[in-house]
Design brief:
Helix content is 72%, strand content 0%. It is mostly helical and 199 residues long. The longest helix has 37 residues. The chain is elongated and about 70 Å long.
């Protein structure tokens, strides 16, 4: 007569099925890494933006503290703490944070394009004498002498490898012109880009 216990080790084969319903270790690690990256992304945002992100106060506090830490080791430890706090969030909270960050990325693409257009215009001012004439024709309110001095100083800074003080000031002036013209919207930046293409 066959032994009913033969081949059995004393437990039902479905006894451990529940164990496999849980995420695997590698899946958990991937999720932890993704949350750590999300926390890192938040730490890299400007403080006023972080304050507008929908999240629990304790998580926001951990992020704002991390932004203030300059010491490498201290910041690393605080980053780990931020990661730990991120793991306390539920899926809806994580989705809301991700949605906010994604909306900023869309905005920052147009910001980046606008910035590149301004940088190209600044380069043109340093290399092409006609560029200043065009700029003054578009913006007669500008101080001609001041701009000429800045351009001369910026060329000198580049030639002598000095800190780009005048170079940066030219950029700020161009930025103010673009902001005034566009009322702060991105369309003006595209106009700036079109001008660059036409020149």
């Amino acid at each position: 007569m066959p032994n009913p216990n033969r081949g059995s080790v004393g437990f039902q084969s479905n006894e451990f099925e529940q164990e496999y319903d849980r995420p695997s270790k590698s899946q958990l690690k991937r999720e932890m890494t993704a949350l750590q990256k999300l926390g890192q992304e938040l730490v890299e945002q400007p403080r006023d933006r972080v304050k507008r992100v929908p999240m629990p106060e304790d998580v926001r506090e951990a992020i704002l503290i991390c932004q203030q830490i300059k010491d490498h080791e201290g910041r690393r430890r605080q980053m780990q703490y931020v990661g730990k706090k991120m793991r306390t969030l539920d899926e809806d909270e994580i989705a809301a944070i991700q949605k906010t960050l994604d909306s900023w990325k869309g905005l920052s693409k147009s910001d980046t394009a606008a910035m590149h257009a301004l940088e190209r215009r600044r380069e043109k001012l340093l290399t092409d004498g006609e560029a200043l004439t065009e700029l003054l024709a578009e913006n007669p309110e500008l101080d001609v002498q001041h701009l000429r001095t800045l351009i001369r100083n910026a060329r000198k800074e580049q030639a002598e490898n000095k800190p780009p003080k005048a170079y940066r000031e030219i950029f700020q002036i161009l930025k103010q012109i673009a902001a005034a013209r566009n009322g702060g919207n991105a369309d003006a930046d595209e106009e700036e880009d079109d001008e660059q293409d036409d020149e």
